[in-house]
């Protein structure tokens, strides 16, 4: 665990309260390990930062989201044991942390304040969310009460995540006399999320004349990535402190003994570009999925194309080159420049690199299938066989060496089914699953600004699956600039076909793309999970029936 934060310029005598924001990465379900981390962080916050209060994220004790672990019969016992241990430690700073608590037979998403070995206060989240990736109403009852308490002479209100986004909790705490709101969060990343958080915090702080400490979780949990970005706003709605996104640590802020509990401002971090933020999200998601699931290494097929090139760079940045293996699996349709570029990428990143031709295996399969295929014309069956042979090779390496197979499909391909079941979809995690193709190119260009690892012609050449002679993606799909715009309107924004056409797109393109999206839901159900970076990722966000009679149209 790192300890970080800008230098605090005010003297100890001038401050009223020092709050340490514990922007940390917790493992879902590891209640004993999370308890250890909370105790360690609290001690470090006191010894290194002189903390008066340490604020942890939402449901820090269980990790977020715990999902159906909350239904396990032993949950209450495990939580009770952890709470007893935290109280027995008699930690000197007050700690505010998220924990599931049962009261009156109902389970609540709670925040507790522990000080001097005693639970001083409990707050039950008033608005458990039930949309997009959230399904808290499946587990938690809504709280009803406001919680305001005195901490070191400061009147402090407690809220949890979604409570900030609704009218009531902050307003009620301010009306009850709170000068400072501590808001515990497990808010997952998407491309525009931090800007929306800032606009909300600015409004809530200024309208209610309270300072707000917003503490967020960091790290990856299955397809979700939590970006941290913890912040402090003063009573006028001015951003005083912002913690860098995707960075764990302890971050201190002082509040002065003034009428509005004024935070001492710190130097704000530079605003990251969209490409930098997304790239960091992918690295975080891959790193935590691999490490938390205890995989020793990863393996991926390196084709010489843009998707596998970006995936390889992400994997190395997440795990280190020693834990990454790249495999080129050429066939008769593989262009020489693909082989050259794949090797250049592997050498530039320093990973183990192998070349295994699938030609002999393909010929053997075709010999076996010669009888039933007699009299038929080659079609996508033969193309898919190539992809499936590559999947078999990668999964064999996975089994033998305990490596996780990273697939390389992007969101555009996943949307229209431009992928092969049990072929290039065979694997355990897809870093680019929620990344549109046009953004993949931008990520490649961004990664090359850090160090040149992706050859320029990989970025500029027309994309191809190379499963047939002279094949190009755009032979079967609209250009990616057009495709991604149509997909954005249909998948992200729920536009109808007629509404998309009204935006200026060709009716034939719109009908073809929508039809491909709709008929390929069965493929997406069988795809590996991957990092979510948008508000409508395939999986928990967008759940459509495979079998349905919904007609194309308005």
UniProtKB/TrEMBL annotation:
<dbReference type="GO" id="GO:0004359">
    <property type="term" value="F:glutaminase activity"/>
</dbReference>
<dbReference type="GO" id="GO:0009435">
    <property type="term" value="P:NAD+ biosynthetic process"/>
</dbReference>
<dbReference type="InterPro" id="IPR014729">
    <property type="entry name" value="Rossmann-like_a/b/a_fold"/>
</dbReference>
<dbReference type="InterPro" id="IPR014445">
    <property type="entry name" value="Gln-dep_NAD_synthase"/>
</dbReference>
<comment type="function">
    <text>Catalyzes the ATP-dependent amidation of deamido-NAD to form NAD. Uses L-glutamine as a nitrogen source.</text>
</comment>
<comment type="similarity">
    <text>Belongs to the NAD synthetase family.</text>
</comment>
<feature type="active site" description="Nucleophile; for glutaminase activity">
    <location>
        <position position="161"/>
    </location>
</feature>
<dbReference type="InterPro" id="IPR003010">
    <property type="entry name" value="C-N_Hydrolase"/>
</dbReference>
<keyword id="KW-0547">Nucleotide-binding</keyword>
<feature type="binding site">
    <location>
        <position position="193"/>
    </location>
    <ligand>
        <name>L-glutamine</name>
    </ligand>
</feature>
<dbReference type="GO" id="GO:0005524">
    <property type="term" value="F:ATP binding"/>
</dbReference>
<dbReference type="Pfam" id="PF00795">
    <property type="entry name" value="CN_hydrolase"/>
</dbReference>
<dbReference type="Pfam" id="PF02540">
    <property type="entry name" value="NAD_synthase"/>
</dbReference>
<feature type="binding site">
    <location>
        <begin position="301"/>
        <end position="308"/>
    </location>
    <ligand>
        <name>ATP</name>
    </ligand>
</feature>
<dbReference type="GO" id="GO:0005737">
    <property type="term" value="C:cytoplasm"/>
</dbReference>
<feature type="binding site">
    <location>
        <position position="131"/>
    </location>
    <ligand>
        <name>L-glutamine</name>
    </ligand>
</feature>
<feature type="active site" description="For glutaminase activity">
    <location>
        <position position="125"/>
    </location>
</feature>
<comment type="similarity">
    <text>In the C-terminal section; belongs to the NAD synthetase family.</text>
</comment>
<dbReference type="InterPro" id="IPR003694">
    <property type="entry name" value="NAD_synthase"/>
</dbReference>
<feature type="binding site">
    <location>
        <position position="408"/>
    </location>
    <ligand>
        <name>ATP</name>
    </ligand>
</feature>
<feature type="binding site">
    <location>
        <position position="523"/>
    </location>
    <ligand>
        <name>deamido-NAD(+)</name>
    </ligand>
</feature>
<keyword id="KW-0067">ATP-binding</keyword>
<dbReference type="InterPro" id="IPR000132">
    <property type="entry name" value="Nitrilase/CN_hydratase_CS"/>
</dbReference>
<feature type="binding site">
    <location>
        <position position="187"/>
    </location>
    <ligand>
        <name>L-glutamine</name>
    </ligand>
</feature>
<feature type="binding site">
    <location>
        <position position="384"/>
    </location>
    <ligand>
        <name>deamido-NAD(+)</name>
    </ligand>
</feature>
<protein>
    <recommendedName>
        <fullName>Glutamine-dependent NAD(+) synthetase</fullName>
        <ecNumber>6.3.5.1</ecNumber>
    </recommendedName>
</protein>
<keyword id="KW-0436">Ligase</keyword>
<feature type="active site" description="Proton acceptor">
    <location>
        <position position="58"/>
    </location>
</feature>
<dbReference type="GO" id="GO:0003952">
    <property type="term" value="F:NAD+ synthase (glutamine-hydrolyzing) activity"/>
</dbReference>
<feature type="domain" description="CN hydrolase">
    <location>
        <begin position="17"/>
        <end position="257"/>
    </location>
</feature>
<feature type="binding site">
    <location>
        <position position="413"/>
    </location>
    <ligand>
        <name>deamido-NAD(+)</name>
    </ligand>
</feature>
<dbReference type="GO" id="GO:0008795">
    <property type="term" value="F:NAD+ synthase activity"/>
</dbReference>
<comment type="pathway">
    <text>Cofactor biosynthesis; NAD(+) biosynthesis; NAD(+) from deamido-NAD(+) (L-Gln route): step 1/1.</text>
</comment>
<dbReference type="InterPro" id="IPR022310">
    <property type="entry name" value="NAD/GMP_synthase"/>
</dbReference>
<keyword id="KW-0520">NAD</keyword>
<dbReference type="InterPro" id="IPR036526">
    <property type="entry name" value="C-N_Hydrolase_sf"/>
</dbReference>
<feature type="active site" description="Proton acceptor; for glutaminase activity">
    <location>
        <position position="58"/>
    </location>
</feature>
<dbReference type="GO" id="GO:0000257">
    <property type="term" value="F:nitrilase activity"/>
</dbReference>
């Amino acid at each position: 665990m790192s300890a970080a934060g800008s230098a605090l310029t005010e003297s100890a005598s001038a401050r009223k309260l020092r709050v340490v924001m514990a922007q940390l990465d917790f493992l879902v379900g590891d209640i004993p390990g999370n308890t250890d981390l909370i105790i360690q962080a609290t001690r470090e916050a006191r010894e290194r930062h002189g903390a008066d209060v340490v604020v942890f994220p939402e449901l820090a004790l269980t990790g977020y989201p715990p999902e159906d672990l909350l239904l396990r019969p032993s949950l209450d016992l495990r939580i009770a044991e952890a709470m007893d241990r935290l109280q027995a430690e008699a930690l000197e700073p007050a700690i505010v942390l998220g924990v599931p608590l049962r009261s009156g037979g109902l389970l609540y998403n709670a925040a507790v304040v522990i000080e001097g070995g005693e639970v001083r206060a409990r707050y039950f989240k008033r608005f458990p969310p039930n949309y997009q990736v959230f399904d808290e109403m499946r587990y938690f009852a809504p709280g009803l009460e406001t919680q305001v308490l005195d901490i070191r002479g400061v009147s402090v209100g407690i809220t949890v995540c979604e409570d900030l986004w609704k009218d009531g909790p902050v307003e009620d705490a301010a009306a009850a006399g709170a000068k400072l709101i501590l808001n515990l969060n497990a808010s997952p990343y998407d491309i525009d999320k931090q800007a929306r958080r800032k606009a909300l915090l600015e409004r809530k702080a200024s309208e209610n004349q309270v300072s707000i400490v917003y503490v967020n979780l960091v790290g990856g949990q299955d397809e979700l990535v939590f970006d941290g970005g913890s912040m402090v706003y003063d009573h006028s709605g001015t951003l005083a402190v912002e913690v860098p996104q995707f960075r764990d640590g302890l971050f201190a802020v002082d509040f002065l003994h003034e009428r509005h509990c004024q935070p001492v401002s710190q130097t704000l971090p530079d605003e990251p570009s969209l490409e930098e933020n997304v790239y960091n999200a992918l690295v975080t998601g891959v790193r935590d999925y691999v490490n938390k699931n205890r995989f020793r290494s990863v393996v991926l097929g390196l084709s010489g194309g843009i998707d596998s090139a970006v995936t390889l760079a992400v994997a190395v940045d997440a795990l280190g080159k020693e834990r990454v293996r790249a495999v080129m699996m050429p066939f008769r349709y593989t262009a020489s420049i693909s082989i050259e570029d794949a090797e250049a990428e592997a050498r530039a990143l320093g990973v183990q690199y192998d070349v295994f031709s699938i030609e002999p295996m393909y010929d053997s399969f075709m010999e076996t299938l010669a009888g039933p295929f007699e009299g038929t014309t080659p079609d996508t069956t033969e193309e898919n066989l190539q992809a499936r042979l590559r999947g078999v090779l990668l999964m064999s390496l996975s089994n033998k060496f305990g490596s996780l197979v990273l697939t390389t499909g992007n969101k555009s391909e996943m949307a229209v089914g431009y992928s092969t079941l049990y072929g290039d979809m065979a694997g355990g995690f897809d870093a680019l699953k929620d990344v549109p193709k046009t953004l993949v190119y931008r990520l490649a260009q961004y990664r090359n600004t850090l160090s040149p690892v992706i050859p320029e012609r990989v970025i500029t050449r027309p994309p191809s699956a190379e499963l047939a002679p002279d094949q190009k993606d755009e032979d079967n799909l609209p250009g990616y600039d057009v495709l991604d715009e149509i997909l954005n309107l249909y998948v992200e924004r729920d536009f109808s076909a007629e509404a998309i056409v009204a935006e200026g797109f060709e009716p034939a393109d719109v009908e073809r793309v929508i039809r491909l999206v709709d008929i390929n839901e069965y493929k997406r159900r069988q795809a590996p999970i991957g990092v979510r970076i948008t508000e409508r990722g395939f999986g928990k966000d967008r759940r459509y029936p495979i079998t349905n009679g919904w007609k194309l149209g308005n």
